[in-house]
Design brief:
The chain is of the alpha/beta class. Helix content is 38%, strand content 20%.
């Protein structure tokens, strides 16, 4: 007997992907394999397995990718100081390429003819997933239900779920929920009251940070240690990638750090407003810039700054695996071996203050910078330097 074709579905165990699972079963003569990437989001393994089994799924795969996510995706991005449109630290954007890569790996392992995702037809994630799918599995079919099915609204989805006896969470009955994405790096919340930019974000939306007003009245001090451009410890204690970010998330979150309320320009041209929390990531990007300031030369730092906007845009648009991003990453990492030392930060009611930078690097010269008279800096060259630039001013 000929075995059924297979589809690998990116599955969260929630209402939307459970509906997609049932829809795939009804519309394709194929076995659906449920795949979940654990990248530090709030994950209920029991719920994922139970809900998938109720719909007849036999193969349920949950992969722990937290360390890979932080080391191979978050850290390279931090080294590039990637911030989209001056505000967004790209928490959702950087997660999709890894999920797509591992999902295609599973599809190849089980000889699946297709992969599927639950991203909506208006958002960025469908692009990020599908560019990743194409890079690693160009011959594997992509099924995007939100772009092809006849379910047009939340009401349609609820009706479909009831018809097929799919569990409907109580908070999702009647009204659409907030759209929430989370991983070890960040949490984003969009939709409902946030859609109108005149509305203030209610405090209950924030999930991993307290308000600055409710943060402790005493500051918290934290030292982040760096080796070859990557954080490798907190307060002198070595930590693996995911444990280090978990630690920083807790320290920053309890001090009201990492909140942004932004309106962003999506790749498809739509503007959207959201509340994003990136507590540990905010500490990392500030500390990394601080340690680079005393370990890298001016030309290297300014070159990195000149490409940052484009580098961030490529990540946002789903081009993590593009030749252009690979090329820019080489520029970002050119002298990362020189970036060693530690940065001490003071965290207080939503604010971050750099307390100290410690390194063995010779890039920063106390002799040259000193206001005391010394022979290490030849001031007689300064006049020639200024005269040269006077000529360039009028060219």
């Amino acid at each position: 007997m000929k075995s059924k074709k297979r589809i690998v579905l990116a599955y969260s165990g929630g209402l939307d992907t459970s509906i997609i699972l049932k829809w795939l079963q009804e519309n394709y003569d194929a076995e659906v394999i449920c795949y979940t990437a654990d990248i530090g989001q709030k994950i209920d393994r029991k719920k994922i397995i139970t809900n998938a089994k109720k719909l007849g799924v036999k193969n349920i795969i949950i992969n722990d990718l937290k360390d890979i996510f932080v080391k191979d995706y978050v850290y390279p991005m931090i080294r590039g100081h990637a911030i989209y449109e001056g505000v967004y630290l790209l928490g959702t954007s950087i997660a999709r390429p890894l999920i797509a890569k591992d999902q295609i790996r599973i599809a190849k392992k089980y000889k699946a003819f297709a992969v599927s995702h639950g991203a909506t037809g208006k958002g960025n994630d469908q692009i990020r997933f599908e560019l990743g799918y194409h890079y690693f599995g160009p011959k594997i079919k992509i099924i995007a239900p939100w772009r092809i099915w006849k379910l047009k609204s939340r009401t349609d989805l609820i009706s479909y779920a009831k018809k097929n006896r799919i569990l409907i969470p109580k908070d999702k009955k009647g009204a659409p929920p907030f759209s929430v994405d989370d991983n070890l790096f960040h949490t984003s919340t969009e939709g409902k009251v946030l859609e109108n930019p005149k509305n203030s974000a209610p405090e209950f939306l924030y999930q991993r940070s307290v308000s600055p007003e409710k943060a402790p009245n005493q500051p918290t001090f934290v030292t982040i240690n760096f080796k070859n451009g990557e954080p490798n410890g907190v307060n002198g204690k070595k930590l693996g990638p995911s444990k280090l970010l978990e630690k920083l998330n807790l320290l920053a979150g309890k001090n009201g750090i990492g909140r942004v309320d932004l309106v962003e320009n999506r790749f498809l041209g739509i503007k959207s407003r959201g509340i994003y929390e990136t507590p540990g990531g905010t500490l990392l990007i500030i500390a990394h810039r601080a340690i680079e300031s005393v370990t890298l030369d001016k030309e290297t730092m300014h070159k990195k700054d000149s490409i940052m906007s484009r580098y961030a845009e490529l990540i946002y648009n789903g081009y993590w695996y593009s030749k252009e991003r690979f090329k820019l990453q080489k520029i970002v990492d050119l002298k990362k071996n020189k970036v060693n030392g530690s940065v001490k930060l003071k965290l207080y009611k939503g604010n971050i203050t750099i307390q100290s930078r410690i390194t063995n690097s010779k890039a920063y010269s106390m002799k040259k910078v000193s206001f005391e008279e010394n022979k290490s800096f030849n001031k007689s060259n300064v006049e020639r330097f200024i005269n040269l630039h006077k000529k360039r001013l009028r060219n």
